[in-house]
Design goal:
This protein is 24% helix and 30% strand. By secondary structure, it is of the alpha+beta class. It folds into 2 domains: 32 residues; 135 residues, Oxidoreductase, molybdopterin-binding domain (Sulfite Oxidase, Chain A, domain 2, Alpha-Beta Complex), CATH 3.90.420.10.
Length: 174
Amino acid sequence: MRLVDRQQRSYASFWSILVLFLLAPAIVCAQAPPAAALRVSGDVPNHLNLSAADLAAFQPQTIHVTDEKGVPAEYSGTPVAEILQKAGAPLGKDMKGPNMALGVIARAADGYHVLFSLAEFDPAFSDRTILLADRRDGKPLDSREGPLRIIVPGDKRHARWIRGVDALEVFKGR
């Protein structure tokens, strides 16, 4: 074999190893599970970008429900009303008149979205707590359900139990 061929192969190996070395962190990061993050926007005075740490700072709540397969489950997380209240949504005594036409669209990373009336989240209007869950049965939500999921106790169908929630948008109805 000629010396030139060996040198060319040696350089090619060097560059291949260098490229792999430089790309390895990007490949590892791309495979890491997504961190819980939630954006709150729309017709609220305070738009929020909440990290997992921000969400953990809320007082956690746990609810017991039956999932879509009929299996009892315990979900833990933050009541959506508390998040909306932090964004300045009119809840409690301010939930009257034109504010009764406010809605909330919950959006998932995969494009799925669900419509709620803002009043559905207000403890003054309902005894149920709609939860933004990050845990099921004491464990973080798996990649199929999470990292965040809205749980709506009392719904006979679970179509509004939106998985992979990443945004809440408050808007005025017409």
